[in-house]
Amino acid sequence: MKILVTGGAGYIGSIVTEYLIEAGHEVVIVDNLSTGHREAVDERATFHHGDLLDGDFIRGVLGDGIEAVCHFAAFSLVSESVADPLKYYRNNIGGAVSLVGAMAETGVEHFLFSSTAAVYGEPDETPITEDAPLRPVNAYGNTKLAIERLLADSAGAWGLKSLSLRYFNAAGASRLHGEDHDPETHLIPIILGVVLGVRTELIVYGDDYDTPDGTCIRDYIHVKDLATAHVLALERLAAGVTGAVNLGNGQGFSVLDVVRAAGEVTGREIPYRIGPRRPGDPPILVASSRRAEELLGWERAQPGIETIIEDAYQWHRTYPHGYGS
Ligand code: UDP
Questions:
Q1: Residues annotated as part of the active site
Q2: Are residues 232 and 128 in the same domain?
Q3: Which of 305, 168, 170, 290 is nearest to 224 (CA)?
Q4: What digits encode the pLDDT tens for the residues 59-87?
Q5: How far is ligand 1, taken at its centre, from the CA of residue 278, in Å?
């Protein structure tokens, strides 16, 4: 298939691109490089530097034989979205509206959407199934949910076929690509930054949550497993499967569990101090991925937190200051 990947210069988009190409697909990347990296663009893909908000540009790209779209391009920092919601509504929702509109005009009907566990907010039950109430607690989650609703409405209006993949905590790295955000807010790259001496400290955001050790529990999923889920999801989408599926490990690790595991993987004592809670952080987010297993035939190859940290560590050792290193 000829697939448009928006945000292919970003963390998950670059790794999904790698896997799509290895599965035999032709990939066209659109990225405005506002948060992505030119170095992360796969050499085997066709690259267009441009913005989704530019309707003429995106119609031109889609009109050149694109059969399906994987949409990653979005801002994704929860704390930034709380401080500056307009930035998120403009870019995330605006970009998706422009892209889906251009798909309607050019007759491209298949859409794989990079959604998030943040659509659930603070769930009543764990593990979270796709039928749980959708009540985001931050602007980032609200923009992703609004896009899921746009996709459902477009299905009714003109026959768009979409699958929304609700990621839990993507982590790890592939052979070629890893995580490089500015600013970096994610736990594992921050811990590895401390290990590699490019960061001075790790602050654990709160140890007074209602969890066994008082720190937040998350479901860390290897980005390589996310990538295989996308390859399967595109096949299933072409076969008529639509809707939303969770992508997680089904296993929760507290912040201190991750710090301990990183200590074992790297052979280093990791210093940290306890700070205040971070606004917008739900105490526990763990996925049920049964639907993804059943609908997509998805099997995780890298379930262990140690493998996730080990692969991330390899990448960060090669690029301690990110892609520019
Ligand atoms: N976290 C932390 N210190 C950090 C970064 C993250 O204690 O420097 C915690 C954060 O509060 C959350 C967990 O680690 O409970 C995972 O956060 P991350 O930002 O990696 O992912 P999120 O769950 O927000 O998507």
A1: 140
A2: yes
A3: 170
A4: 999 999 999 999 999 999 988 999 999 99
A5: 8
